[in-house]
Please model this.
Amino acid sequence: MKKIFLILIISFMSLFAKDTMLDSILKNVSIVNVDNTIKNAQILKKDYSAQNFTTFIKSWKKVEAFYFAGDIDDNYIDTPRYIDVFHNLKEDLSVQMQRVIDSKDEPQIALFKNSFKTVNALEYILFNDKTITKREKAIADVIVDSIISKLDDIKEVYEGYLTRTKKDDLWENSLVMNTLIASTYKLKEWRIKVPHKEKEYILSNNTNAAIVAILEANEEIIGEQKYYNFANMAKENGAKKETIEAQALLNKALKSAKNNSKDLYDAVNELHVSYFLSLIEQLSITAKILEADGD
Amino acid sequence: MNDLIVFEYLINPNKRIFWVYIISSILITFIYFIYTKKSNKVILSSKLWLHPSAKLDYSYFFLGYFINVFLLIPFILSAKSVAFAVSRFLYLNFGMVQNTFFSYKETLLLYTLALFVCSDFTRYILHRLLHEVKFLWEFHKVHHSAKVLNPLTFYRVHPVENILFGLRYSLSVGFVTGIFVYFFGAMIDIYMIFGANVFIVIFSLLGSNLRHTHVPISYGKYLEKIFISPKQHQIHHSNKHFDKNYGGYLAIWDYMFGSLKLSKDVKVLKFGLRKEQMKEYTTIRGILFFPFRNLFNRRQL
Model:
């Protein structure tokens, strides 16, 4: 009887145990975004319309911008590259995808490379011309199935992490901080600064939609939200002023992106600098390290 | 109050006399005397442990606690300032570097190693300067005034030397950390055991405390070119070889810069300063004020 009572108390207490910041982000942002992307991919598979593709891309960009699975489990470091090869592929994917379309091989065989099963490959298949042929649809189906399978893996890693008992706050905070920095860096240098012909999703005309989605993902992590996120953690740890400043810069960048403004690069750059210099410094994420050298 | 001081030093794995390191040193000593069949008379002698020089080490050790609290902790805070000044400078001048090459675990290993090596190197440089710059030697003499060695001799250090070592810590750790923050962002950490740098723990377990004892353990002529053995540090304390073996954990700096002395090359060890100088360092007051008086007198001449 005593044992049962004890188990009940522990279970009751664990129900009210406070989530770590990463736990909360995984539950409220990452898993939700992965689910949305899977759902949008399934909708796209039923109807390869431009609108459905845009919706799917927007949800995927949110998953990609804040991808934590590779850091949680080394085995999943390359998963985003199996879904998206923008800025990571040296070959001309358009030429290769045209060969896939022209080939007589079964789609499964023709799509033998990982890069052939990515959203970038899918974009070419759907938007290389105005029509989607029967073969192109069959190829697209295989690509979408592959993407969904990879997204399922990501979801599994996130859900697995939530069941772990011991969490390292310092590591989690640093991980999210670094991801914020990396997301804005890639955004400004890979997606905004480059010449028009090198921009992401030129064929489907989704360049700006992707930029807005990435900034919205930033807002989910550091904006004012109902769930516990990076902003709450940073404020609790003495970086209230810096967090409010970053939030204002993020709003400015979002406005610029939605208005297709020319100063978008500067706005995102300001946000990136604010993350890198003000937030890291104020949060003193490295404080523990500096005292552990052993003099 | 004294109980608390001892307690803090004994339970902190970053301190040389952390209880685990003391036990491992005793075990190593025990094995050494059984294995070599040498006489352990000296090490067990009350003359050694109750020597006036040893007694001074014990009492000065307590004072060292306050020196650390009032002089070192402010410097530890400034190590953070150095780190962020370095990363800020690099970022503003060279832009962001996106690390896609090293995994988290590799970064951890690199940072832990860089901290250890850089810290050991700056320790070597400062130690050598303390010997070779006359002004600084007046303060470092305090450490070499120990006639007999025991683990607490490690703490027989003049406050000026404490400040210099605090500054060295801030600059070296801050510099390395700043570079790593620039390249790897917030996500850097170190491999730790008991909450201390893994390398420090390993070397401490292997008998760092034995350097300030009369247990002449040597690592052999090959290994002593890489790591400083207890005997090599004892050689550094012997008054004919003050200018040898400045290294902390690594001997490679001594090897590279020509100050290495191997255990096999020295048979007789005599610790302490010249006889006429020794009388200046027999009290806490002497330890604290004679360096200043000596410098003042030299200026008068």
Notes: DSSP finds 15 helices and no strands in chain A. The two ends of chain A are 53 Å apart (CA to CA). The mean pLDDT of chain A is 91.
